[in-house]
Design a protein that fits this description.
The chain is mainly alpha-helical. The chain has helices spanning about 10-25, 30-40, 45-55. α1 (about 10-25) packs antiparallel against α2 (about 30-40) and α2 (about 30-40) packs across α3. It is globular.
């Protein structure tokens, strides 16, 4: 069994770039590339979203 606490994700800036590619680039090839990169790194877009919410809005 894998220990999820040791999972290494890409730098936050790179993840934000992939989200921009997917959502705002307006280029279908870039949109697909951003989507694939997120899924390859997180297993799903939902997991990527959860990670971003947690890391962009840390609890005080």
């Amino acid at each position: 069994m894998l220990d999820s606490s040791k999972v290494q994700y890409p730098p936050l800036t790179l993840i934000q770039t992939w989200v921009w590619m997917m959502m705002e680039s307006g280029n279908p090839e870039l949109q697909e590339k951003g989507r694939r990169n997120l899924i390859n790194s997180f297993g799903s877009l939902a997991n990527a979203n959860e990670y971003l919410v947690k890391n962009l809005n840390p609890q005080k």
